[in-house]
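Input (Peptidase S15):
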Amino acid sequence: MKTITEFPRKVVEFPDMGIVMPDGCRLSARVWMPEDAGDDPVPAILEHLPYRKRDGTIFRDQLTHPYFAGHGYASIRVDMRGNGDSEGLMDDEYSEQELQDAGDVIAWAASQPWCNGNVGMMGISWGGFNCLQVAARQPPALKAVISICSTVDRYADDIHYKGGCLLIENFGWASTMLSYSSRPPDPLLVGDNRWRDLWLTRLENQSFLAPLWLKHQHRDAYWKRGSICEDFSAVKAAVLSIGGWHDGYRNTISHLVSNIEAPVRGIVGPWIHKYPHYAAPTPAIGFLQEALRWWDRWLKGIDTGIEADPAYRAYVMDSVRPTRWHPERPGRWVAEQEWPAPAIETRKIELIPAGNKPAIVASPQTCGLAGGEYFPFTFGPELPGDQRPDDALSVCFDQPALSEAIDILGAPEVLVRVASDRRQANIAVRLCDVHPDGASELISYGVLNLTHRDSHEFPQALVPGETVSARVVLDQCGYRVPAGHRLRIAVSNAYWPMIWPSPEPASLYLSAATLMLPLRPLAKGDEVSFPSPEGATPWATETVRPANSERHVDRDEKTGTVTLSITDDFGEVRDLTHGLANGSIARETWAIHPDDPLSASGKTHWTQTLSRNGWSVRTETSAEMRSDAQNFEVTARIEAYEGEILVFERDFEEKIPRILV
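Output:
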């Protein structure tokens, strides 16, 4: 990445600008703007997050926000209520209070003498979600949005209930947020006499969100609120949607470009869950330059040519050897002037010839261990590995070796006729690229709770032995399968630890299966290009403890239990400007017996540390999830230390009825 130090306008920074909400709650904002904005007002750009601007997102903030400010914007990074250096309490993700606060910050920014009255909103993940949700509320000053790695459907395309199946990340993310929100504000900003009171109040009111999310197992009003797919026409601001093929949120770009009536463009690269100017696998792109073109057009009224850009730009990845991490993905950029693209044809492939006996799918509960993380973000061993171990536990439909290469672009689907011997059963479908030597690389996957085959809002139990029709939609993908390789469609009824297992071992009887494969005419090379990545001066730190990520799968030969253990040590660094050191370690274990879905368990343990000049705090958060045939059981604990003295402890425990059907 090229570091830019000279900008058209000189930048000034305000590390703790207070923005007081109508109810008196003070939000803390870090703001960069041109030094002369008071004389020559500029548009504002808002990023509104719970992830702590002081020590959480500071790496990416430092690259991004001063860059925008230097090009004539007031760039505002706000700590959400109840997090970081802001006052107040947070009780859920995307709450009415959160979205109202964002709207109030937009109105506040638009009214400042240094602002020209136009505001944009941006973000990745949580920030990508809430900028779309805020746009749907149509605050008058909000003219444009850049949403990265986000979703339009909080129920079926987030970390909660993919295809109506309970994602393990539902519990995993609740554990992460319990840890993230357990940390105190910085005494240097809020004061030596206030930080402890704010911290203890925050801890006493801390929510553990897993039980709340488990109480909404169907697509009810809780999930519809904030899901902009309920009414795409509500979004009037111009939307630039960006994502990556190695991220869990890869479908949103297509949904938005296909449905938004306001100006909209989409970009999908080969990336994990990161901003695309420093993302991997490479190639990264000059995201900040692209963002400036977007902001300049919609916030300043400058003709930047953005409206002539293709509606959908995507990276079609080449086939590679399967491995848990790819530092780069060879391929090419393709462009479609409209999306869905008329040149993309659907190839229909019958997987079970008429008259054949049904294929019996009865996977061990351990099928899925090669699947990788839902949204990888550590630049480590989190991608899907060689699929052969999972293929061996699935029913596989192998196609003939290709005589010529094909480009897949879009969302493959598999239509099935299936019967189950149980009232509830899941189905997982993987599309794989099988190399001539047998290595199997995951292209895309989809899962479906078969009781949700017709509706996520009104599921219907299966009648054992009765054949039903179902449609399994796989995630969007851009992938070239070379000549000599084969496509494999692998079907299982377990996908651990991506989804929580059905309460009983089930057998599925597939009497018909059809693959619907979206094929684009073979690209001859790059059809569009992007500038090389640029950024402002990087965050100045010293490393106290280096980062390290590890994954281990262990089989207890006595009990048969298989355990996936993950340790992500994010290291510890010290800020060279204000001296705050922060460190964190996440530990997860996911255990299951191949024959017993009720043996499934998940455990997490997070450690967070903050210190400066003899002052130090530490939080330890742990959580565990199990289930029987009738209930989910969830427990959690917070311990908070000042120095080595325990100053707070709290336990959570709840049993939630299991009503996925």
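The two ends are 50 Å apart (CA to CA).
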